[in-house]
Every structure is written in structure tokens, then in C-alpha cells.
Design brief:
By secondary structure, the chain is mostly helical. Helix 5 packs antiparallel against helix 6 (about 140-165), helix 9 (about 215-235) runs parallel beside helix 15 and helix 12 (about 275-300) runs antiparallel to helix 18 (about 425-455). Helix content is about 80%, strand content about 0%. It contains 18 helices and no strands. The protein has helices at about 5-35, 40-45, 50-70, 75-110, 110-135, 140-165, 165-190, 200-210, 215-235, 235-250, 250-270, 275-300, 320-335, 340-345, 345-370, 375-395, 405-420, 425-455.
Length: about 450
């Protein structure tokens, strides 16, 4: 049986490469902070990337479900079939979505419309390649595409936004180059053919398995992005841009959470039994909360004290939201540590959980955003993530009880609540809370590594 230690050793190199790529991508936020107007960033984030990200989430969730449900999908022939039936339809859907977005931009921001079209199309291409690499389990090629995307985005933003001062247009050009080159890199390293014409029976089989997964994917996408959609419809676009910037500042915690999350699925499906999966999930949840949670809490404490003179005017008003947004990302990643519904193939219950959490997020956003603006959007996002985690954890317990280390997890969460509450306090108070955050994180990670060693 594969142990947690074996999985961590096998995935460490790939996680390191992905973290490096995401670190470069996060570095581009610095160029955005000084060179992109909040109004432009709000439009860019809402239209050419919002719906594209929705398409990416939809395809990602659907394909991951297919990989776990479709008979023979873990064999080479099964992955070939899945790639052939999935790559081109999803690429075409993303391209059509990009053209519709460009048409909308002609009305809202005509100076960015034509730059957004190639950026959205290249994102659709990159998304389709990523799905193919995931289907092939080509983790090395997948990691390289993430590194290429991050490096090109950072360099492109530095040249076009920082040096040439092109603002939002420069950001879109940099994204176009980053997604196109990363997608080409992944396609060149792919081992499966995407040109093979699928058989009609293969199409029908894929559609039959994908249909139950689509409502849950759409609901999850709605929960992810309803805050920005309602914010854009009720508040000035500059506030949307400031909120989008806060999301970007919350990326480090999300990156670490996503990297920890990638270790879990291959390990679960090798272990096979529910008790082993529950033990593994509990260990990984401790590591995820201990590492990403501390980053999110420190983000909440440090960013409000960042000198606003370093930023473009308008971004400083939402820096205190980065901590809660980072915690919402962690809660969404933590839901993957409760695998009972997936192991039992109870897709209907998983879909119902996603729909209820989406309704919670939309309701909170509709009530809070018109009055509170970005603060209401952050609260709605956090409420949707928390409700989704609680629903998945409760529903999954019947099929695969997860052994939670409350002594490690609860102190980190409590320190996170204190950090988000005291974000705007004076520096001595924030320093004291920061020490508490570090101590609880060290305690959780020590227990995490202890459990890892015990599984050898």
C-alpha cells in the first residue's frame, strides 16, 4: 500500500515546479499594482477572464469526475478515448465564449475589446491542453506548462505594463503570450493524439457520464464568481477592480492549498479502502490547514499595513479583504479532503451540496454587496465556501469517515479568525497575533510530519 510519505516524495518535485510557476505568476501582481488602472482591471477580471474561468472550472470538474467514473479511463486506451472526445469540443466552447466576451467588451470597454479576444482564445487553448495532460496523468508536462505560463506572464507584465506603460492592454497581451506558449509547451509534450475522430459510441458514453456532473460544476462556478457579477452590477467598476486586486493578493495561500490538494487524489485511489483513505485525508487536511492557513492569516495581518503609496490609487481600500478571501480558497480546497462521495460514486449528493452552497453564496452576495460593496462580496464568498465544506464533510462521513486531528486544526482556524478580525489594528497588536499564528502553524505542521513518519 502506498503511504503518505511515498506520495509526498513522489509529488515533491512536481509540486515544487508548480509552486515556482505560480510564484512567477504572483510576481506579476506587482506590475499590476503600479501600472493597471482599477477600472481596467475590473473589466478585465469580470469579462474576458470571469467567464473563461467558469468554462475552465466546468471542464476541469467534469473531466476529473469522468476520470474517476468512466470505465477504463485509467487505462491508456481509456485516456486516449477521453482526450479525443473532450479536447476539441471544450476548446471550441471556450473559443465561442471568448468571441461573445469580446462582443460584450465592445460596449463596456471598447479600448480593451480586441486585446481581450486573443487572450480569451489562448486561455481556452491552454485550458484544453491542461485537461488533456490531466487525463494522461502527465504530471511532469503539466508542471512545465505551469512554469512556462508563470514565467512568461511575469516577464510580459514587466515589459508591457511596467516598462512600456500599456496598462490593461499590456496585461491582456502578456496573458495572451503566457497562455499560448504554455499551451504549446504542453501540447508538444503530450503523448495522446487529439486528432483521432471518436466513435459515436464513445461520444454517447462520455455524455452519459458527464451529464450528472454538469449541474454541480455549474453550481460551483456560480458560487465562485457570483460575488464579482453582483458587485459589477451594483457598484462602480473601480470597486470591482480593487476587489479583483485583493483576490490576486490572496493567491499565495491558494497556491499552497492547491499544491497540497494535488497529492491527495492519486494516493486515495491507490489505497483503495475507506479506512486508509480516511486516515490519509485527515493527515493531508492537517498539512493543508497548517501551511496554507498560516499564510492566509499572515496575509490578513500584513497587507493592510502595506504603504498605499506603492500602489495605484484605489487598490489600498480592499487590502484587508485578502485574508478572508485566502481563507475561502483554503476551505474550498479542504473539501477535497473529504472523499467519501467520490469513492462511493455518489455524484447526485455531491451535486446537491454544490447547488446548496452556491445558493448560499448568491443569497449572501445579493443581500450584502449592494450595501457593503467589496466587503459584502468577501463575506458572501467566505459563507459559500464554508457552507460547501460543511455539506461535503457531513455527507461524506457516512461513506468514508475522515480522522480529523482537532488539536492541530482548530488552533490554526482560531488564530485565523483572530487575524482577520484584528487586521486593521495597530502594529504591536498585529505583531502579537502574528506570533500566535506562527506558533499554531508550527504546532499543526509538527503533528502533520509526525503522522507522516508513522505511516512509513
Amino acid at each position: 500500500m502506498t503511504t503518505v510519505n511515498d506520495a509526498l516524495r513522489a509529488c515533491t518535485g512536481q509540486i515544487g515546479i508548480r509552486l515556482l510557476g505560480r510564484a512567477f505568476a504572483f510576481g506579476s501582481v506587482g506590475w499590476i499594482a503600479v501600472g493597471v488602472d482599477p477600472a481596467d482591471l475590473g473589466v478585465i477580471d469580470l469579462l474576458p477572464l470571469l467567464l473563461q474561468a467558469g468554462a475552465a472550472i466546468l471542464t476541469l470538474e467534469t473531466q476529473q469526475g469522468l476520470l474517476r467514473l468512466l470505465p477504463g479511463s485509467k487505462t491508456t486506451a481509456g485516456r486516449e478515448t477521453l482526450c479525443a472526445t473532450a479536447f476539441w469540443p471544450w476548446l471550441s466552447a471556450c473559443t465561442l465564449c471568448a468571441m461573445a466576451i469580446a462582443a460584450v467588451l465592445l460596449h463596456h470597454a471598447p479600448h480593451l475589446a480586441w486585446q481581450a479576444l486573443p487572450a480569451a482564445i489562448s486561455f481556452g487553448f491552454y485550458t484544453a491542453v491542461q485537461q488533456q495532460l490531466r487525463a494522461e496523468n502527465a504530471h511532469a508536462h503539466w508542471s512545465r506548462t505551469a512554469l512556462v505560463q508563470g514565467v512568461v506572464l511575469f516577464v510580459g507584465c514587466g515589459i508591457l505594463v511596467g516598462h512600456l506603460g500599456l496598462g490593461g492592454a499590456g496585461l491582456l497581451h502578456a496573458q495572451t503570450a503566457a497562455f499560448a506558449l504554455a499551451g504549446a509547451t504542453g501540447l508538444a509534450g503530450s503523448g495522446c493524439s487529439v486528432l483521432r475522430r471518436p466513435k459515436r459510441t464513445e461520444w454517447m458514453e462520455m455524455c452519459a457520464y458527464a451529464a450528472p456532473l454538469l449541474p454541480g460544476s455549474l453550481a460551483w462556478w456560480t458560487a465562485q464568481w457570483c460575488d464579482r457579477a453582483i458587485l459589477a452590477s451594483t457598484r462602480p467598476v473601480e470597486e470591482l477592480g480593487a476587489y479583483a486586486f485583493a483576490w490576486r493578493m490572496a493567491l499565495p495561500a491558494g497556491i499552497i492549498a492547491a499544491s497540497m490538494q494535488t497529492v491527495l487524489p492519486p494516493l486515495l485511489y491507490r489505497d483503495g479502502s475507506a479506512p486508509a483513505a480516511g486516515r490519509t485525508s485527515g493527515i493531508m487536511l492537517t498539512g493543508l490547514i497548517g501551511s496554507a492557513g498560516s499564510i492566509a492569516s499572515l496575509t490578513a495581518l500584513l497587507l493592510p499595513h502595506l504603504p498605499t503609496s506603492m500602489l495605484h490609487s484605489g487598490y489600498g481600500s480592499t487590502l484587508d479583504l485578502a485574508g478572508p478571501l485566502a481563507w475561502s480558497t483554503i476551505l474550498m480546497a479542504a473539501a477535497a479532503c473529504f472523499p467519501g462521495l467520490e469513492l462511493a460514486k455518489r455524484t447526485g449528493i455531491a451535486t446537491l451540496c454544490a447547488i446548496i452552497s452556491a445558493l448560499c453564496a448568491v443569497t449572501c452576495a445579493a443581500l450584502l454587496v449592494p450595501a457593503l460593496g467589496p466587503q459584502g462580496a468577501a463575506i458572501a464568498t467566505l459563507a459559500g465556501s464554508a457552507s460547501g465544506l460543511l455539506l461535503v464533510a457531513g455527507s461524506s462521513r457516512r461513506y468514508c469517515p475522515v480522522q480529523l486531528d482537532y488539536a492541530a486544526i482548530l488552533p490554526v482556524i482560531a488564530a485565523g479568525v483572530i487575524a482577520c478580525t484584528c487586521a486593521k489594528s495597530n502594529l504591536p497588536t498585529c505583531a502579537g497575533v502574528g506570533v500566535l499564528v506562527i506558533l499554531t502553524s508550527v504546532h499543526a505542521l509538527r503533528r502533520f510530519w509526525r503522522d507522516v513518519r508513522e505511516t512509513r
